Amino acid sequence: MVTALARAGFDDYVVYERDGAWTFAGGALATVTLDATHVRVRGVLDSDIEWSGSPGAALRKALDSLPVRDWRAYGRVHFGFAGLLPGLGLRGAAAPAGELVRLLIPRTEVRIADGEVTLRGEDQDRVREILGEPGVSSGKPTLVDVRVDGASYRERVAQAVKEIRQGQYQKVILSRSVRIPFETDMVATYELGRRGNTPARSFLMRLGNLEAAGFSPEIVVTVSASGDVTTQPLAGTRAFGRGADVDAAARAELESNPKEIFEHAVSVRTAQEELRHVCVAESVRVGDFMGVKERGSVQHLASLVNGTLAAGRTSWDALEALFPAVTASGIPKPESLDAIARLDEPRGLYSGAVITAAHDGSLDAALVLRAVYQEAGVAWLRAGAGIVADSTPDRELEETCEKLTSVAPYVVEKGA
Known about the structure:
Layout: H1 3-6, E1 13-18, E2 21-34, E3 38-43, E4 47-50, H2 55-64, E5 72-77, E6 101-113, E7 116-121, H3 124-131, H4 150-165, E8 171-180, H5 186-195, E9 201-207, E10 210-216, E11 219-223, E12 228-231, E13 234-239, H6 244-256, H7 258-276, E14 285-295, E15 298-308, H8 315-322, E16 330-331, H9 333-343, E17 353-358, E18 363-367, E19 371-375, E20 378-387, H10 393-404
Antiparallel strand pairs: 1-2, 1-9, 2-3, 2-6, 3-4, 5-6, 5-17, 6-7, 8-16, 8-20, 9-10, 10-19, 11-12, 11-18, 12-15, 13-15, 14-15, 17-18, 19-20
Helix pairs in contact: 2-8, 4-10
């Protein structure tokens, strides 16, 4: 499995799973980073350029400047990227600090799909040797308590419900972090967690000082080289995996609960509106409305929203239009982002995206939820819930616990 390569000593790497295909991108041929003022390229080309206007356009220009034929990039986009987007930056607030995007153009790229292995770039003999070696045991997980800090979260939910009923906004996602009291073996955690989850996308990465492993329940956006655009909002949640009868009862309650249906419907409506900004208006359509997707320890209401890019629009425009995901921010987005800034902790990568992008204009962005994060030996989990007028603090706290249970049972202590 590609995780053998993650153990092989590459300084930076990204493992990305999509539609049954696994990609490992390791070693930096080039790195592209973006903050509030500059986009920087290091590696085969060194540049430091001040940007303004569209951050997506700045990234696309930097990538297109690379002297790399048929480049593909892999990386992360932090939630704070939203503060750079026209119309979403908070009035009177300083620009988001620090690095918000880091993309890796790999020296070594391995794709495994349908039993076939495709190698690209450097170290191909080394890669074949690593893939041919016996697998390493994933280790045993260590219990992580996900029910800490309940009182604080209930208070924040109650405040959001009050503001919603006052008409300040319709919906907001509030989250809470759970500190893991030991350094985590991220590769082993990913291997165990992937066996226990059914994600839309999964990822494992070490980029700079940040590590993350996750089992994304939904995409922010997918754009094909021909300009087909898809997003899949998931909103409305109940527990899953507690037995056939209990799961069926939870599904029936999910599909008939007014609060969950409202939360989902307004999210789908917002996704349609956002796609119309970058797509041919009449091409925007909804498919599989309010189906149910099972994602590890939870099940969600899910819908597909599709469109076709309008002339002159790019995949980066589509990412900007849909970022941050409505299911991880709220409605309307500017007002919900203001509430998140007041009521949530700084998010970092949580509810941002892990992305792949290519020279042909294609792009795939997985929403970063159901993940474990680690930096400087400190590891944590994080989960949120969608708050609307009919929300109750106890139920929303329980929803975060249900989501955290998609990851917490699989966390492996380093060296254990």
